[in-house]
Amino acid sequence: MTSRFWRWYADRQFNRWEKTVLWDMVEPYRPPRSFAPLVGTYVAAFYTGVVASAVTEQLYKVTILSSPTAPPPPPPPGSFPLRSLAAR
C-alpha cells in the first residue's frame, strides 16, 4: 500500500514537472497579449476627463454670470494689459 502511494506521488510530481518544462518551451512562441483593453481604458478615461471639464466650465459660467455681485471673469490668456503698454 505504501509503495503504491509513493509511486502515485512520484508520477504526479514528474507529470507536473513535465508540464512545466513543456510550457516553458512553448511560451516564447505565444502571440503577445492584446493591448485593446488597455487602450479602451485610456480612451474612456480621456473622454471622461473631456466631458467633466466641459461640465465644470459650464457650471462655472452659470455661477459667475448668474450672480450680480460676483466680480467679472478673468480675461483670457494672452490678453494681458501690459502687452499693449509695451507696444507703445
How would you describe this structure to a colleague?
The protein has 88 residues and is mainly alpha-helical. Helices cover 72% and strands 0% of the residues. It has helices at residues 2-26, 36-66, 81-87.
Please outline the helices and strands.
Elements: H1 2-26, H2 36-66, H3 81-87
Keywords:
88 residues; mainly alpha; rod-shaped
Mean pLDDT: 77
Structural class: mainly alpha
Low-confidence stretches: none
Radius of gyration computed on alpha carbons:
34 Å
Biggest β-sheet strands, sense, barrel: none
Strand content: under 5%
Q: SSE order in H/E notation?
A: HHH
Backbone shape:
rod-shaped
In brief:
This protein has 88 residues and is mainly alpha-helical. Helix content is 72%, strand content 0%.
